[in-house]
Design brief:
By secondary structure, the protein is an alpha+beta fold. It has one domain. The chain has three helices and ten strands; from the N terminus they run H-E-E-E-E-E-E-E-E-H-E-E-H. Strands 1, 4, 6, 7 and 9 form a five-stranded antiparallel β-sheet that branches. Strands 3-2-5-10-8 form a five-stranded antiparallel β-sheet, with no helix packed on it. Helix 1 packs antiparallel against helix 3. The longest helix is centred in the last third of the chain and has 30 residues.
Length: 235
Amino acid sequence: MFRRLVLGALAGALWAVSPAGAATLTGTLTSDNAFQAYISNNDSTLGNLITPGGTGSDWRSPQSFNVNLGAGTWYLHIVAENFASDADHTTTPANPGGNPNAILGQFGLTGGLFGNGSTILLTSTDPVWRAQEVAAGASWTAPSGAPAHQYASGNNNGGSNIWTGAYGGPIPGISTSAEWVWANTSASNTGEAFFSATISAVPEPSTWAMMVLGFAGLGFMAYRRKQASAVAARA
């Protein structure tokens, strides 16, 4: 029986060093008014676009994505824009939009953890999120500020905020525990904001292999001690 367990552990170790050990990031996201989501292995680099269709341009229609991640630490980057008007759909330094930019979303991770130590991440003022309001059209820089609420209460999806009133209920596909968050608490009208969240290190495949072999080794040592005790008792 024990031999079969050891063989199973060895098989698990071989699986762990195969390419099948990648993590998967899923998400559903919206922004007032538009956004692009990126994944990067460096917080100072914007990274690869993962938003389906390039840009989400209607806050009433959230976008979902699914992306595989290799081993290491990753960063979810979101660029949010606020249009000058619903008809304009442009953000420029001369015409930056009338309010700070808000985002709302939920994210899941298999094979790793977010910076909050969980496999689930919601938009909120949790320190795992960083935010920065920037000039329209600015190049990406790692945000260093904290996300904020514009309302004293009712910031959650479906709460007493303008989006719930305009939509007639919570934005579909996003948890009602997720919160609308801004880059700051005042309408400074820059028209653009950066948001970032850390995805904690996804273990290297070799790390999984060493863990599996380590557990197998501990089990084998316990088995040998038990066998030795049994022999001594019969002597």
